[in-house]
Specification:
The complex is a heterodimer of chains A (129) and B (260).
Chain A: H1 9-12, H2 31-57, H3 62-84, H4 92-118
Chain B: H1 2-10, H2 31-66, H3 68-75, H4 80-105, H5 109-142, H6 147-152, H7 177-180, H8 187-223, H9 233-257
Classes of the chains: A mainly alpha (129), B mainly alpha (260).
């Protein structure tokens, strides 16, 4: 994942050469890659709308439909975060922060949904009080 | 950091900026380190943003799990074609922002200005479409067919329908025996879907407004020639914010518009 490690603060310590001032010492993502990622994002967008349309025509289990939609959304997110947000060529620390948001979300969902299920969710459907 | 102190004192006469541009703050050793710190700070903020929207997505998960049928019926009344158009608009704007960061990095001022300009137009287009969707829902509550009819006192809506959560909320009656027996209970869960819809897309729209403000400021600074290949950090972290808004929409779109 992380490509260039030569410009971490520890390495740069004591060096003041102009070479360190180029501002993009980390790896680089080319314009061609941006266009390819955009193409993939558009393709995934049409796939998810297509899957939704298909679910309206053919009987597909509802859970499968949700899984397909969320898988496509996660793939799109991964592409945006890795390339558009430069995480692929960022420092280990930035990558850790990006991963931290995923860990935070997992904790939020596992703990709270776990609590709901442990108490019996969904509840008995009936007239609301 | 001993090195920084020595360097600063050595160049005290010119305020310590002799060996580099004026954008390098004294407590950083190199522009790369300064940019790294700024990017990391932005990511820390983005994590809190993810958790903010995460709470809404959690509420969504809890209630969709409980009322899957209600969700499917309720989502049917959202404008999926317009939602799809907005998804395309936002994905294109994400591309223009990514290209703008690249242009700033290479010191291409004209291209940077063009790309930021296109981003602004796309952002405004997204909010315009969103505003139309919202006003359509409000027009239905007022009893009119379209927002234009509402403003001009035109065509009335035949059936009673109000999808804006609140006292006036009225989900249109479905034809069929199955729904009739739930007639007394189906009102509130449908409202739950639309409550989450308005909160989630509303908060997203607020983020779009903030994003547009940021891009406007970046455009102004770029026009003034503020950014150089050695200093374009505001474009970079402003871009990060814009991409986060895009990521949130990537999940909002299938979860609200593409439900069966």
């Amino acid at each position: 994942m992380a490509t260039s490690k030569h410009d971490t603060p520890g390495d740069a310590h004591g060096h003041q050469e102009p070479a360190h001032y180029d501002g993009h010492a980390h790896g680089h993502i080319s314009v061609a890659t941006y266009y390819r990622v955009f193409g993939a994002l558009m393709l995934l967008m049409f796939l998810t709308v297509g899957a939704w349309w298909l679910e309206g025509v053919v009987a597909i289990p509802r859970l499968l439909g949700v899984i397909v939609a969320l898988t496509i959304a996660s793939t799109k997110t991964l592409l945006i975060v890795l390339f558009f947000m430069h995480i692929k060529v960022s420092s280990r620390m930035s990558q850790l922060y990006a991963a931290a948001s995923l860990v935070g979300l997992l904790m939020l969902f596992i703990v709270i949904m776990g609590d709901y299920f442990a108490r019996g969710w969904p509840p008995q459907l009936g007239p609301l009080p | 950091m001993a090195t920084t102190t020595q360097t600063t004192s050595a160049h005290h006469g010119d305020h310590g900026h002799a060996a580099h541009g004026p954008e390098l703050q004294h407590h950083f050793e190199t522009p790369a380190q300064q940019k790294e710190a700024a990017t990391l700070g932005m990511w820390a903020f983005l994590v809190t943003e993810v958790m903010l929207f995460g709470g809404i997505f959690l509420a969504y998960a809890v209630y969709r799990w409980a009322f899957p049928d209600v969700w499917a019926e309720a989502a049917h009344h959202l404008n999926t074609p317009l939602g799809t158009v907005n998804t395309v608009v936002l994905l294109v704007s994400s591309l223009t922002v990514a290209l703008a960061v690249n242009a700033a990095e290479h010191g291409r001022r004209t291209r940077l200005l063009q790309l930021l300009g296109v981003t602004l137009v796309l952002g405004v287009a997204f909010l315009g479409i969103k505003a139309f969707e919202y006003s359509e829902k409000f027009a239905h509550c007022a009893g009119y067919k379209t927002p234009i009819a509402w403003a001009t006192g035109g065509e009335l809506l035949g059936e009673q329908e109000c999808l804006v959560p609140g006292r006036a909320f009225a989900f249109p009656a479905e034809h069929g025996a199955a729904t009739e027996e739930h007639a007394s209970t189906n009102k509130t869960p449908h409202q739950l879907f639309y409550l989450l819809y308005f909160i989630a897309t509303g908060l997203h729209a607020v983020h779009m407004l903030i994003g547009l403000t940021i891009v406007s400021i970046l455009t102004f600074l770029a026009w003034r020639g503020f950014f150089t290949p050695t200093y374009f950090t505001p474009v970079e972290i402003g871009g990060l914010y814009w991409h986060l808004i895009d990521v949130v929409w990537v999940f909002l779109f299938p979860l609200f518009y593409l439900v069966h």
